[in-house]
Design goal:
By secondary structure, the protein is α/β, with parallel strands linked by helices. The chain contains eleven helices and five strands, in the order ααβαβαβαββαααααα.
Length: about 290
Amino acid sequence: MQKLSETEKINKNTASLHSLTLDKQIDLMNKENLRSVLCLKKAKTSLKKAINLVAKTYLENKTILFMGAGTSGRLGILEAAELPPTFSTLPSQFKALIAGGNKAVFKAVEGAEDSKENGARDFLKNSKNLGALITIAASGNTPYIQGALKTAKQKKVPTILITSNKNASKENVDIFIFLDTGPEFISGSTRLKAASAAKFALNMITTLAMTKCNKVYKNYMVDVKATNTKLKARAVRLIALTLNINQEKAQVLAQKTNYKVKEAILLGKGKKNYKTLLTKHNGNLEAALNDK
């Protein structure tokens, strides 16, 4: 018999929630939410392993797949959707699946998470060129996720599980990321602390993996995909900041390079062979700038 996850236990700190003033409810929720941030510190070792795996997988031009059910599935979809504009990754390099299919993104599909077979099936349908599977599940024991993990292990695809249950099954998990969020603010409502912590973990894994892949210079988003007015303006600002020039000059460089920040910066430094330099240094802007 599986032990009850901490997320399903009664939170003694909020036991009288319904009778508190709104001010006290807000203060209490803020205090509880802090645990979602602080728990990542304890998970540092496993987070490092996950970051290194994602970076390695990306550099090998293989796909990273996120899978989850309900809120956890939506978190994976959000992560996969935001990486292309932020870091100019290809949509094929980060994919996400939610139990119940795309309709479950907007409306809960009851029972979709209860099938190991569906998890295995969905994984297999998306296993081409797959280099890593990242699963998200507050309880860690969601059948849909466990079915995917078992099949991934059989196919020798490295696996990650992000969970708030230390007693979750680790049988088919290579990197176990336990986020100690404790009992929920409202008992069992894992869309709260557990989901917040999982989002923080996903942010850390993907952001620092992409940093390892030379997509960040200083703390600048130098691989931003400038596909709208806001992102074009951001690209121009980053060019101006890096080269210490005004917006007008940065705008000219941006237009010459189709708003590719790295290329514009190198061109601004007089390096007309910017594409060759970036290829030579695997996209490392600092190395390209220092190339004689």
